[in-house]
Amino acid sequence: MPAMFFHFAFIEELYRISSNLPYNKIDFMAGNLIPDMSATKKTLSHYRKASYVEGFVAPDIERVKKDLFFPNDPIKFGMYTHLWLDKRFIENVLIPSFIWDLENMRVINPRNGKSWSANYFFSSRGMYSSYTEVKTFMLRDNLIPLEEISKIPTILPLTGIPIFDIRRKKTWRKQLDEHLSKQKKYTGNIFVYPALWQSFQELAEEFIYEHNL
């Protein structure tokens, strides 16, 4: 659910706050990319199940743990981390931040009173456009580890798990370049940069604590 560069920034934050991450960082980042590069339906590649708000789905973290929770394998642990962040972001950040008017299929921002149709909110013009808005600040603040990202192989390693090893034609590198090249004037209508990044910092601390890292 968060944009690719947020997943990279999250990993960078994990390494910033913990000195007990014995993983090969490049492999860890490579694994983190794999769930979104799968050509399999996201119902499978993201272990989706119904969330606590009607209409939302999030990774079933217990099933994810069973298949991917191998802390000594940086690729699989990177995949696990990606799906953990997806779940926590959806349920701990996205859902609580807005009012979900299911009857009228509207999304309302209680901070400023702005509202959007559900279709618009989840389109490239809505929430994903807001990610593009805050990206400029993330680059300014050196939150996205571009130098280390450049070391990740374009062709990601195979996992031995079929749902992940059937890959999309577009490489992650091309996708990231497209994300980074997009420009959008900052409005803060959907996400406010400082508050959004603070939520990722809090999730990173939660991840470290939950996994005794």
Briefly say what this structure is.
The protein is mainly α.
Keywords:
11 helices; 55% helix; globular; mainly alpha; 213 residues; single chain; 5 strands; three-stranded antiparallel beta sheet; two-stranded antiparallel ribbon
How many whole angstroms does the radius of gyration measure? Answer: 17 Å
| Share of residues in strands | 5-15%
Provide the structure class.
mainly alpha
Report mean pLDDT, rounded to a whole number.
94
Number of individual domains: 1
As laid out across the biggest beta sheet, the strand order is 3-4-5
Shape, per Cα inertia axes: globular
Low-confidence stretches: none
Number of strands: 5
Percent range of helical residues: 40-55%
**Number of helical regions:** 11
**N- to C-terminal separation?**
24 Å
The main sheet comes to:
3 strands, antiparallel
Element string (H = helix, E = strand): HHHEEHHEEEHHHHHH
How would you describe what is shown here?
There is one protein chain. It contains eleven helices and five strands; from the N terminus they run H-H-H-E-E-H-H-E-E-E-H-H-H-H-H-H. It has one domain. 55% of the residues lie in helices and 7% in strands. It has a three-stranded antiparallel sheet with strand order 3-4-5. The protein has 213 residues and is mainly alpha-helical. The protein is globular, with a radius of gyration of 17 Å.
